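Form 7-S
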Amino acid sequence: MSRIDAAAKVAGAIRYAQDIQRPGQCYAALVRSPWPHARIIDLDAAAARALPGVLAVFTAEDLPDRRYGVHVRDVPLLAREEVRFVGERVAMVVAETRQAAEAAVERVAVHYEPLPAVTTLDEALAPGAVVVDPEPWRYPGALASPQDGPNRQWHAETIVGDLAQGWQQTVWRVRATYTAQALHQGYLEPHAYVAEVDADGRYHLWMPTKAPYALRQELGRLLEVDPDRIEIHPVALGGDFGGKGTPMDAPLCLSAAARLGRPIKLVLRFAEELTATNPRHDAVITVDVGCDGEGRLTAVELVARFNGGAYAGLKPMGTFQAALSVGDAYRLDAVHLVAERIYTHTVPRGNVRTPGAPQLYFAWESALDELAKTAGFSPVEFRRRNLRRSGDDRWGTRATEWRGVQTLDAALAAYQPQPAPAGWLSGTGIALYHRPTHAAPMTVRARRQGDRVTVSLPFPETGTGSHTVAQKAFAQALGRDPETVTIEQAPTSALAPSPGIGGSRATAGLMAAAAALAAQWQKTPTSDTVTVAVTPTDEPVTSFCVEVAQVWVDPETGAVRVPELVVAVDVANVVNPEAHRIQIEGGAVMGFGAALQEDLALADGRPQATNLAEYKLPTAADVPAPKVVLLTGGRGVGPANVKAVGELSNVPTAAAIANAIADATGVRIRDLPLTAERVYRALLPRVDSAGL
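Output:
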């Protein structure tokens, strides 16, 4: 079944936010801080205002002193008195054309007094460190407390079982620290906004967002207007991957449009995307893990610290759930997990596909390989001995269906390593990840028009094929040909609030909504319009993904190639095989990019990769074609018996490749990305000793 939006996208008929044109529309550009931390001494916009076509220059003094955020509301509209990261908004210029606005930005003179900054986790946590925010607990939604200590955005701890007893049983033990880099989500459509306040005082916004109702609610609070007076209009999303679920610059655009009395369009340049939006958290993770003489895990203590940047408000979730459950795929009953988000004077971090999990599982699955080698077991046998089975006790609950071993076996059965080029080293690595399946609550509306039915959904097509899945689901439920069913995103005035799309929840929620809609229409067969709201009940269903990677390593240069990548996924019913496979393959490619190439490369708080020539997104020439294996027959959720798939295959890739490099070379690299330079430096002692 082809994607229902494919033809329109190929033909250029899809409307993105950048395509919106409103009567009287003008254009905005932003003045941004060049400093990670500085006091604003003076701002002189006279020269900018004097340029032809310039309509206004807004500073913090021109707008309300209010803060916003998705969970923690600590983000200012514009920097007030001080700047906290390179790229922070200091002023907004509005002009008749984009070119005039950008030219005027260069004429805004800002006098800064640079201040000491903490730009790394070590600096932020050092005794006597500069404090980014003196009272982070004062904001609505804050998760920090005075007891957490300075520079904490969030602190959480999980303790399960008897650690002292676990360590007493330990024969072999590994303690190591791993780092993961900050990276961009990699969507190709930059953030873009068209903001308007009409003659009746209603607010209108066109922007790429996967959570329009949550956005409307937060905008209403910030602007002090009834959210029903704010309309979020549907536009296409040019990619999301977790990055388009926050307000970003929308509050500023609407506030400025209200002051100016004209529609304002702001489209970020890609340099702004890479330096000033909401990238993935870089992380430092220490794993201390042990096993007994039989290779059975005995205890783990893990401390994960994530760089949250200068503000906490650009994260849809207040916590990283992955940090509080890492390791529970294994028979491991003595666990101590600590996770923290830390304030630094760097760009505020946000969500990227499977928030927190790629960083954590790079560390965890790498540490397991190190422990297996230390204890004298193969990585495969070590995991097979320790993976939980169906019916096992799982930290106080019963694991109903737990197919980690079966998924591991399916991956290994499909693995076919290739002969390495002459002089290159070859190695194999494995890693796994698991996550629960959730279903999204949602309200949908269907209306009959002749022989066609139009179904309105509360969220956009984010590029995953969710609207195509919806078309098939509602067609089957209603007993119709899919060609007679049209799927559309509704404006926010049309449906009841919904949490939006994300967290691999769409398909399960859509299936439940389709079944409820069909049942309701059977009760009222003469109705032309039917609206249903569903709140699916979560069931304890877990999906596994196991990846096996082969690498070739050139010992003379450190270059790494991945000729074979097997991705085995534990699935239940597959609703749309094509979209399902694309999600798995796309996730593995994202994991490949994070493993080997992508890096914002922050130095002194400044991202060094400021364009797509320097920020190395993987291309078709870089990656192998992932070999997808489906372990079918699993227990899913809802009427369609489905399992989550969208946030599985991107997680274990980095660990699988790192483990393969260690297998090939005999050296362990604990820092992402696994670049040729890092591999070469790690190999230097070995190369020197071999006389090469």
